[in-house]
Design goal:
Shape: globular
Strand content: 15-25%
CATH class of one domain: Alpha Beta
Distance between the termini: 34 Å
Radius of gyration: 24 Å
Oligomer: single chain
CATH superfamily of one domain: Vaccinia Virus protein VP39
CATH topology of one domain: Rossmann fold
Number of helices: 13
Largest sheet: 9 strands, mixed
Length: about 475
């Protein structure tokens, strides 16, 4: 690997001559792929070594599966996530023991969001945000596939959260950084690195933290992380948060055998560094802070409850608002726990327990997904939505099911037409693979119209000679 000379000099100074030699050698060694199974969808065992700091959720695999051609990957039965970043699980288990409202600020593509959603206590609400529009769509896709209904996906700049005063109990800021920890898996990160970019990054990170700080409750937790090695973006920023914004830096219990490195700047506060010559994973940095409980801030803003009627046109030309069809409620296993509303032509179910927070989010942010999209209304028809098929809140036996072979499942995921067995009823059918829902079709007898989202389809037209799946 052809590392920039300035990076070599800076990192050698940070680590020391001997340690740097081991560090640089490790950058040439590929790390194993790691995954997290979604235990709300499958209890199948994973053949692989447990990730030590996330032993309850993460596994290293012996070889790289052909994820694109594994139907259970598309069904949300597991997520492919870099092992070092799974350390967030350790933090949440240490400090979050009751239901919370949590923000994952820089969330795309969704690895940490799906991890948080799996670990957070039931009754918690996760808000996952991404500032880049195209990446926010990928984030929404991955969280929809994960299937948990207590989720909101937004597409906003960090400054848009400033007025949501004291809304969040926990904020995860995996801030945009210079990406030094990604050098061995992303050659572009090496090419784009410069001292000037490091300088831009740490200043931008402080701006982001300043913007979102008012939205964190006094006594709330900030999880600060980067995928870089330099001290400006890591220890220096953590010290700045504690001093300038007002927070205590907290400790997370770790075992020596895990090889996690502490503070490299001589500071006496705890941080957690994942260095490639000591841990089996990519470069990662994390610190946990608790906001001072006595911080003086403005009184939280009050938002009026959001109603669809607030923006209705008036006069004789105004269209009558669409009503939620009665059958939509029957599609949920615990329908009374949800508020059903019409958004344009979509029927959305959102947990009643979080109505107040949802009202604030709707009025302040650009929400691109929330709860469960149950269906789309077209004329008198209500077409079940893919979000419902992926959701763990889908009622059992409400739709007839058709189990697909592997070949049929791949055809379905390519959005090709299917021919189902003659005994499958006509109408909307939930197709499954290994008893796990893949999505909906409309069976019209001689064929089944494929309702899989066009933008999510497998685009590759070939099938590998050997398909290796996780389970």
């Amino acid at each position: 690997m052809n590392l920039p000379q300035a990076f070599i000099e800076r990192t050698r100074q940070l680590l020391g001559e001997t340690t740097y030699a081991s560090f640089e050698e490790a950058l040439g060694i590929e790390t194993p792929v790691s995954i997290r199974p979604n235990r709300t969808k499958t209890d199948k065992p994973v053949v692989g070594e447990a990730v030590p700091w996330a032993s309850s959720v993460g596994f290293y695999l012996e070889s790289r599966p052909t994820f694109t051609f594994d139907p259970l990957f598309h069904a949300g039965c597991y997520y492919v996530q870099e092992a070092s970043s799974m350390f967030v699980e350790r933090v949440l288990r240490e400090y979050v023991h009751e239901s919370v409202v949590m923000l994952d600020l820089c969330a795309a593509p969704g690895g940490k969001s799906t991890l948080c959603r799996s670990v957070l206590p039931e009754g918690s609400l996760l808000v996952a945000n991404e500032v880049m529009r195209n990446r926010s769509q990928i984030l929404a896709e991955n969280l929809i596939k994960w299937g948990h209904p207590e989720v909101v996906v937004t597409n906003n700049d960090p400054a848009d959260f400033t007025d949501l005063t004291h809304l969040f109990d926990v904020i995860l800021t995996d801030v945009p950084c210079s990406g030094e920890g990604m050098f061995r898996k992303d050659p572009v990160a090496v090419d784009e690195w410069s001292v000037e970019n490091v300088d831009i990054c740490w200043k931008r990170q402080r701006r982001i933290l300043t913007d979102i700080w008012p939205s964190l409750k006094p006594g709330g937790f900030l999880i600060y992380s980067t995928c870089t090695f330099n001290s400006e973006e890591d220890e220096d920023n953590v010290a700045w948060i504690a001093k300038e914004l007002g927070a205590d830096i907290l400790q997370v219990p770790v075992e020596e055998a895990w090889g996690i490195t502490g503070n490299l700047t001589g500071g006496d506060f705890p941080v957690y560094r994942f260095l490639p010559h000591k841990t089996k994973g990519e470069g990662f940095f994390l610190a946990v802070l608790r906001k001072h409980a006595d911080v003086l801030e403005e009184t939280p803003k009050r938002f009026k409850p959001f109603k669809c009627s607030d923006k209705k046109k008036k006069g004789k030309d105004a269209k009558q608002p669409l009503q939620v069809p009665r059958e939509a409620k029957t599609w949920l296993g615990e329908a009374d726990a949800y508020q059903l509303t019409v958004k344009d032509t979509s029927i959305v179910a959102f947990p009643k327990a979080h109505e107040e927070a949802y009202a604030m989010l709707q009025q302040q942010l650009k929400v691109i997904h929330a709860g469960i999209t149950l269906g789309e209304m077209k004329g008198k028809d209500l077409i079940p939505h893919h979000s419902l098929a992926m959701s763990t809140a889908l009622a059992d036996e409400v739709f007839p099911k058709a189990e697909l072979t592997y070949e049929q499942a791949i055809a379905y995921l390519r959005k090709e037409g299917l021919i189902l067995d003659a005994d499958v009823p006509r109408g909307y059918v939930l197709v499954t693979y290994q008893q796990v829902p893949l999505g909906f079709v409309k069976n019209i007898g001689n064929r089944a119209n494929n309702l899989y989202p066009q933008e999510w389809r497998i685009r590759s037209g070939y099938l590998p000679e050997e398909v290796v799946c996780v389970f």
